[in-house]
Amino acid sequence: MTRKISFLPIAIFLIIIYFLFNELNKDPTLIPSPLIGKPVPKFISQTLINNSKITNNDLIGKPYILNVWGSWCYACSIEHDYFIDIYEKKTIEIYGLNYKDDRNSAIQWLEKKGNPYRISIFDNFGNIAIDLGVYGAPETFLVNKSGLIIHKHVGPIDKNYYENIVLPNIKNE
Amino acid sequence: MITEIGNFLLSIATALSFCMFFVIFTEKIINVGSRLLFCKLFIHLITFLIFISFCLLISAFLTDNFSLRYVANNSNISLDTIYKFSAVWGAHEGSILLWVLILSLWGSGVALLSKNLPKTIVSDMLAVMGFLLLFFLLFILLSSNPFDRIFPVPLNGRDLNPLLQDPGLIIHPPMLYIGYVGTSIPFIFAIAILLNGKINITWLSWLRKWVICSWVFLTMGISLGSWWAYHELGWGGWWFWDPVENASFMPWLSITALMHSLIVSEKRGIFISWSILLAILTFSLSLLGTFLVRSGILVSVHAFANDPERGLYILLFLTLIIGSSLLLYFLRSRYLVIKDNYSISSKELMLLINNLFLTITTFAILLGTLYPLISSSLDLGKISVGAPYFNFIFASMMLPIVFLMSPAIYSGWQNTNYKYLTKKLSIILFYSIIISYIFLNVFYQTDIFIVFIALSLAIFTIFSSVMKILQITKNGASKNIIKNIFLLPGSILSNLLSHIGIGVLIIGITISNYYSIQKEVVMKKNTEITIKDTTIRFVNVKRKIENNYSSQVGIFDAFSENNYLVSFFPEKRTYNIQKNVMTEAAIDSSFFRDIYIALGENLSEDSWVVRIYYKPYIQFLWYGAALMILGGLFGIFGRNKLSQNAQNDS
Fold this sequence. Notes:
heterodimer; A: alpha/beta; Glutaredoxin; seven-stranded mixed beta sheet; about 40% helix; B: alpha+beta; 4 domains; six-stranded antiparallel beta sheet
């Protein structure tokens, strides 16, 4: 094999390595949602705790976080403390979408772990979640004051979610 | 205590592997005999230490020692003992420890079974092995230590991922790892050869046995994985071109290429630097696979364990080890020449084409696997490359290879009688085409072109291999043909058996792929549905409560023309701790078909979504894989030449 050809493997390898390094620090859970820039889909449902009627129009007015959760979802209990922290900052409202859950266990779960949600929407059959394009719990949407989705996060949020995602995005609101 | 002892043993092993690596720099000071002795001593000690620490981890799982974070995260008091055992390698930390254990065992194997190689080569090989061990041990100690503590100690563990609670998954990962890690042997051989700048044909035949050995384990591991996916995932599929699967398949393709190119190198003294390059590439693909699986850059949306720090560590190592080996290859590969002038015979040409296609396939799969990363890196958006791409590439590359198998089997190294060969093979090909045409029209009343081609080629390969066996044995020593088969040299038997296996596998893949019948229906209790010639009655659903899960068991009875055949009990399990819902499909297998029933959602009191599949010839997948593995075993353990006995008989 000639000298030039035997250099080819290294060249290919270096290109591959470049891409791997480049990608390493990106988050694979960032999936662009076709809903970004679109309004939150229309819905009419019940609130989790006192069964009163709630629609998508009730949420519009201020920017808010919409978190899809369930008491059956292990990863939701991991991210729950971060939502409590955000709640205590009192700068943005958090709404919950209680996804395919049992009403009693959901309420007990909130009583035990604390309730950061202004209102939790009870989505027993997952219909709202389907319209939102939810893959599974937990997922978190950031919505601006006119009701347009501006960011979507798949999987549990981390402690930097507020600093890195919420603050920059609602700064101009 | 267990934390201290475990860390202590692993630290000593790390220090020893550093010493073993260091031996490579002592060439001028210590003579070769003592260098080899040191290396052998080190590798056996390291294996022993890692083995003991692995046993410690097993005992921690069996005694529910939840003071270890790893045990607390992956086990549970109510878990079956057998799954407590397999939970040891159920997640990252334990599986890396298993990786290292297997690596050191392969190293010890080389130390024990290398009398045919010169001492310099063996001591250099072991020193390079020392470097590999050093890296993985450091990786364990620094970022994935299974002996880390958790405080406060939980009363009970979080349980093993229910997906992994299946008999198939007890042995699948170890098998796969043995094969994966086995690719390190050709790698350390290649590096030692490049460092010494010398090569000898007898060394290559030593290497070939090790290569076949790791090929056998890889084949077993991959087929067990498919078998598990087919039984456990509940959608009747067995291969999904998922990045993790590709990660195991790429080394398989490349080690298959290596196996074939080594035959040429060994017989004719050519393609040597190509074989060396393939050895490096195979191990690089194994490492890349480990990186892709462990770094989390390609995991699916719902895997929550994403650790860029670990990924960075593996990636740096990957760059160092592969980069420096390729550089070494660039500088030294010119010296690895045994024969300068050669003419290429038909057999070599066909093996060369085989290598070319296998390598292209490997790269096409690599490209497909990495494409989402590349496009995201270039800001072209997130794109996923799906099964259609892989299926197309794979089929279009594999069919030419399969077509060439039969001529390759029949042609010799020298003096091939082309006229005879062409005539004989044309007749076999002609009959294969007729048979496959009749078969498709009688049983399926359709002919899809690609199925027709694939089936003809599969039958062609099987026929020509079987004819070859008959031809050799007819002229053989004994009058008894069966006895003659066992007297064949291992290399011939392994060649023919594995190629028959490939033919059988292709039949299974094509027919089950194109002629499966799939019904997803809502069924009420006491209703019936007919699939192919079988009537299936949904009898009832019962609750069952086990130690760590509760389950709903469907009862289905199958009838053929009013005769009762068999009952199915598909399950939908809910695991207590992690609350995951798992499907356990119920499968009735017979030689020519599987009927596969999986229980879906419960819609109301007595109506359920039920998925029923009729899968013809799917069993041929497992038969094909078994034949390939058997072939590999003959390649390792078969007799080397026609035995004395056989010659005396004639």
